[in-house]
Specification:
Shape: globular
Structural class: alpha/beta
Strand content: 5-15%
Order of helices and strands: HHHEEEEHHHEHEHHHH
Helix content: 40-55%
Number of strands: 6
Radius of gyration: 27 Å
Length: 291
């Protein structure tokens, strides 16, 4: 028994000495080492940060006068982005039907892990607010998420119920082209659906993802990043505002509007052609049978 205890003690001392040696080698003051998985993750993140620093595509332009410093971005602007004025008529003939949507959520349930609608804002094509209301959640709020949502307890006092807001929002959005960023989150808390071909999600548009060097990646550029890079506008520096976010998403959409709408029209045209195809046409039959 004593021999077993002595063996365990020696192993413990040797492990402790090994940890202290590694701690000194890594220039840390603690002998508590991170798990290998986390160490690998930190190394990977460090490597990614170095790549980003060396890549001009990841530089953030906070001033439009600095755009010429970044040739890739300047070429992107010349090729795809047009200057615009919200009061001028653009190529999209449906601009009266275009609205931008953004929602703010609070947390309900255990530790506020369930996102629940607390504010919904909608602006028209000119950026004018056409709907903006707070919403009283059906369940008790356990986390107001004020740091991000900007929602406080007093904001929800006397606010209309969810069912009322849902009905009103549904009427406003009916038949509209909806612009927003990561709209699937907004539709989820609103418990609404909308035709996919009438959704313009700036988080999913490939052209904007290419600019942020994400390409076909499943990652999406943040609205804050797009606003700073393309609009020279700082948003979401602290508490979020659903009206400001909706306007930012709308302005990002306007920059690539013509290109985006042209793509949508071409896709719809291709679908119509596919639906009109009949496999009884001669081109689908072997030429030998016509001899």
């Amino acid at each position: 028994m004593n021999e077993l205890q002595n063996t365990k003690a020696s192993i413990k001392r040797s492990n402790q000495a090994h940890y202290e040696h590694l701690a000194k080698k890594s220039k840390t003051n603690s002998s508590k080492l991170l798990p290998r998985r986390i160490q690998r993750l930190l190394k990977w993140k460090e490597k990614q940060n170095k790549v980003k620093k060396n890549n001009a595509n990841h530089k953030i332009c906070t001033n439009k006068n600095d755009l010429n410093k970044y040739p890739v971005f300047t070429e992107f602007m010349k090729t795809h982005i047009k200057s615009y004025d919200a009061n001028n008529c653009l190529l999209n003939e449906h601009q009266d039907d275009i609205v931008a949507l953004d929602c703010e959520m609070v947390g309900t349930g255990i530790k506020g892990c369930v996102s629940t609608l607390a504010r919904c804002s909608i602006v028209n094509y000119k950026g004018d607010v056409i709907y903006d209301k707070y919403v009283k959640p059906s369940n008790p709020v356990t986390d107001y998420r004020t740091k991000w949502s900007g929602i406080r307890e007093k904001d929800l006092a006397g606010a209309p119920c969810f069912n009322q807001v849902q009905t009103e929002v549904k009427d406003v959005l009916n038949g509209s082209i909806i612009v927003g960023h990561s709209l699937h989150h907004d539709f989820a808390v609103l418990k609404l659906r909308h035709s996919q071909h009438r959704i313009r999600d700036t988080a999913e548009y490939e052209l904007l993802k290419e600019f942020t060097n994400m390409g076909q990646s499943s990652c999406t550029p943040s609205l804050r990043c797009l606003a700073r890079c393309l609009l020279g506008r700082d948003i979401q520096g602290g508490e979020h505002c659903s009206v400001a976010d909706a306007r930012a998403a709308l302005d990002v959409y306007k920059l690539v509007e013509n290109h985006w709408e042209e793509e949508v029209k071409n896709q719809e045209k291709e679908k119509d052609e596919e639906n009109n195809v009949s496999y009884m046409d001669d081109k689908f039959w072997p030429s030998e049978i016509f001899l």
